[in-house]
Design a protein that fits this description.
The chain is mainly beta. About 10% of the residues lie in helices and about 25% in strands. It has a single domain, classed as Rubrerythrin, domain 2. The strands form 2 sheets. Strands 1-2 form a two-stranded antiparallel sheet. Strands 3-4 form a two-stranded antiparallel ribbon. Bound molecules: zinc ion (ZN).
Length: about 70
């Protein structure tokens, strides 16, 4: 069984294995309950990046469910 990494509830960043705190928004809640994996390379040219309000390249979750 593959363990889902955490994703930040604020910026949707998918965190590295074993990391449970977003380096960009340390006070934001994280969740392993998320769907839609996207890799954003050029945020300024990406519609998804605009929708997620992402301004840095990286791996993101489309939807993060915070309990
Ligand atoms: Zn974050």
């Amino acid at each position: 069984m593959v363990k889902m990494p955490f994703s930040c509830g604020e910026c949707h960043l998918v965190l590295k294995d074993g990391v449970d705190q977003c380096p960009r928004c340390p006070s934001a809640p994280v969740s392993s309950d998320w769907t839609g994996y996207v890799i954003i390379v050029n945020p300024e040219r990406s519609e998804i990046a605009k929708r997620l309000q992402v301004d840095k390249p990286g791996r993101y979750a489309l939807k993060v469910n915070i309990r």
